[in-house]
Design brief:
The protein is about 30% helix and about 25% strand. The chain is α+β, with helices and mostly antiparallel strands. InterPro entries: Endo/exonu/phosph_ase_sf.
Length: about 325
């Protein structure tokens, strides 16, 4: 089978004032969003609610689904990632709660890791769905994650009592949205709890992609997480030039390495102390000494532009 239909719902169930939900209201949400034939979801992504109620494996309607892998992101990142097999289609669901724009440090980390994870999934042809309280509008999300994702809520339908559209279900290009709904009645509490988000749901047709095994998504996530914590792993080449010396001897290669934006404060202090001898190369050697992390990024260019058989040594010497 080359495709599968999946219905995904999302709800930030946090009550204003930080009060916990009572069991009766938890059961009400479960009944409305998982068992009600009009609102039924195969997979329900919840934010700001007890971990046991959020469990994908225990609360789902896919009769022949298989949970390949499930894990929560490391502390500081609000991502819960699960890989599924439904029929013959393998896919990934990412449940996220991105902090508000004013919490820029935390939001930047979440978007950084999410953007790289999305890029890896696209590269490997793995269908994915991202659901949750994003706290950013569509334009801001696209600026962070790129244009390879689509929005089930492509009309900016209001998803909160404050008339915002910050809850979304996003999907990859090898998937197709078959409809989007805001379920306002599903979060009406018999206990008069004030939830300021509405539940949302969308049905998708997922196209068969790459097969997934346990550990595949964890490794991809770990790679993205490490890139955030070790900036040398995501150095980009901003300028590549080669020119011959006047005497016709070996080419000289110039490569400028940009400083990651998140290191700007350290960079500023370093420049003040080393104003006369400032260079990006010295900065990277001092603060990101692991040459092995970044040499692979540039090695291909060195091989194509030099006749030096020991390219790795040449590059390491350049970065010292």
């Amino acid at each position: 089978m080359d495709s599968a239909r999946v219905t995904v719902g999302s709800l930030n169930a946090g009550i204003q004032g930080g009060k916990p939900l009572k069991n009766t209201f938890k059961n009400q949400i479960k009944d409305e969003l998982l068992l009600n034939n009009f609102n039924k979801n195969d997979i329900l992504c919840l934010q700001e609610i007890d971990r046991d109620f959020q469990d994908f494996e225990n609360y789902g309607n896919l009769k022949n689904k298989t949970v390949i892998e499930e894990f929560e992101a490391k502390s500081g990142t609000r991502l819960h990632i699960v890989s599924f097999k439904h029929k013959d289609v393998y896919f990934v669901v990412i449940n996220c709660h991105i902090p508000q724009k004013k919490s820029q440090n935390s939001a930047s980390e979440n978007f950084f890791i999410l953007e790289r994870l999305v890029s890896k999934l696209i590269e490997k042809n793995i269908p994915f769905l991202i659901a949750g309280d994003i706290n950013h509008n569509r334009t801001q999300i696209k600026e962070k994650l790129g244009n390879e994702i689509s929005f089930a809520n492509d009309k900016d339908i209001e998803t909160t009592t404050g008339r915002n559209s910050i809850d979304n279900i996003m999907y990859s290009s090898n998937s197709k949205s078959l409809g989007f709904k805001v379920l306002k009645n599903a979060t009406t509490s018999s206990e008069e709890a004030k939830i300021n988000h509405y539940a949302i749901r969308s049905t998708f047709k997922l196209t068969k992609g790459t097969k997934l095994y346990k550990g595949d998504i964890q490794r991809l996530y770990d790679l993205c997480y490490n890139q955030w914590n070790h900036p040398t792993q995501h150095i980009n080449i901003v300028e590549e030039k080669s020119r011959k010396k006047q005497n016709g001897k070996q080419d000289i290669i110039k490569i400028e390495i940009p400083i990651p934006e998140r290191c700007s404060k350290v960079k500023s202090k370093f420049k003040k102390k080393n104003n006369k001898k400032w260079s990006a190369k010295k900065f990277h050697r001092k603060y990101f000494a692991n040459v092995e992390c970044c040499y692979a990024t540039l090695l291909k260019f060195f091989r194509s532009e030099t006749n030096n058989s020991n390219c790795k040594t040449a590059l390491c010497n350049y970065l010292k």
